[in-house]
Sequence to fold (585 residues):
Amino acid sequence: MAKADVSTKILNVKLANPTILASGIVGISGAACCYAAKNGAGAVIPKSIGPREREGHNNPILVEFKGGFLNAVGLPNAGIDNSLGEIEFAMKNAGVPVIPSIFGGTKEEFGMVAEKMATLKPQLIEVNLSCPNTASDLGEAFALNADTAAEVIRIVKSEIKIPVIAKLAPNVPSIKRIAKAVEEAGADAISAINTMPGMVIDVKTAKPVLHNKQGGVSGHAIKPIAVNCVYDIYEAVKIPIIGIGGVTTGEDAVEMIMAGAVAVEIGTAIYYRGIDVFRKVTAEVKQFMEENGYNKISDMTGIAHE
Amino acid sequence: MERPLERPEIVEITKSVDEAEGIKTIFLKSDIKAKPGQFVMVWIPRLDEKPFAISYSNKGTSGALINPTGEIGITVAAVGPFSNKLYAMNPGEKVGVRGPYGTTYRLEGKKIVMVGGGYGSASLTMLAEEALQQGIKVKFILGARTKSRLVYAEQIKKLIGTENLIITTDDGSAGMKGLVTDALKQLLHKEKIDKIFACGPDKMLKAVADIGSAAHVKGEVSMERWFKCGGMGICGHCCVDPIGIRLCVEGPVIDFETAAKITELGEYHRLKSSRKEKI
Fold:
């Protein structure tokens, strides 16, 4: 049997395998990012960093339902000025590409954070346009509207030379339209999807479990939604896509890749399969490729469209 | 068997026992089976959810002796908005609880010592009891700032005998004047101890681990950091520098070797935002 090559590329950035630690999961610090890398992640995306310190929501921030999890963490972070050291630690020690994720409350704040983050010279920056859990203070997610999403990307691109990944939301009438808009605005890649808005109510107390009441659905339940979005985006744009949403096994990753992704981000599956889920998924992707005659990831990217 | 979903179960507070100034044991009607060292997350709807070490457990490995009633006990020190509210709640009122989570203490050897600082001794009483059941001799060093803040001294005395309990207070109002670490050094000098177990403030844990390692005695400490997802290992808020392990999954109980690798132990912790703050 031929040895399959599981390495992949996002633009010019080479990943030893297609599994990436998703933003918002585990990567609270440089050390936390390295821990995911040590457990097999092909790249890591730290938690999103904004213009200033944020505490995020009170607990509970995470609750399970049959088929997935619901979270509303609320973008806690130390603020860009306090976080550069953490990102730098990750870049020095992770041994894999580190892709900082940024957010802002206004378009201008995205630009400011991007500019400061760019001083570290990361190979890529993910622009989180789509957190569903901060409407109470940051307003509606930028990714819900093609014009605002594009405007943020334009501003970020005018501030920095580093390629940017636009992270999109699934809860829109046409993700194709949003994807096209960010591509035209200069986005170099797209990651999709962020979590889907949801709620879990505790019936004994008649109260939503999450302190933020509403949260974002992740895990198995959103996988078909994510695959569908990646499939749609692949038809709409030329830039590379990173698939996110419910990827738990190698087969899930392959499905996402066949829909059009060059790599996948993994988050909730850390709960289901442990922190070494990256290593496990990579081994399963490799085994699938070898059993099914695929030599490299690019042989599978988007083939569900053929 | 199907795994229960990760969400709080609403349970009644059955009993609330004053232990010391500002410290209570609160008993919850719960069939959670926990081992010494593990923790649960307690939820007060619309307020917050926080981790608590289990100080009494039903049907677990050991708790049945002192707690045969189908309850778990948690030690609550009224220090912040959440713990003050929980401290003030009465039997009959309800809270959410989920767990147990985290690593457990691992007993070994013939003679061990527990080092409990302040209400940190909560998770060690259950362990002392299990050790006795296994025929392990137990010494207990129990420290507090002052006499009125000492917890579980009477229970521990009953369990292991007065001669095996060493009390220290910072101001000398009970037991010997000084720190638990002073007492530990003396004990290690006098007696052969096979393993040390410690729970308490960060700086104390660091000192205990250093003293134990220097004396070539094995040991474990129970470390505390800000928990958000609390036991699910997803949010990363409790990852420690520089090794990145998650204290809610790979901890809270860690051995001296691991403790030695955690450079933030006794030095700094992360606030709710994740910004570092000196201890």
About this structure: Chain B has six helices and 15 strands.
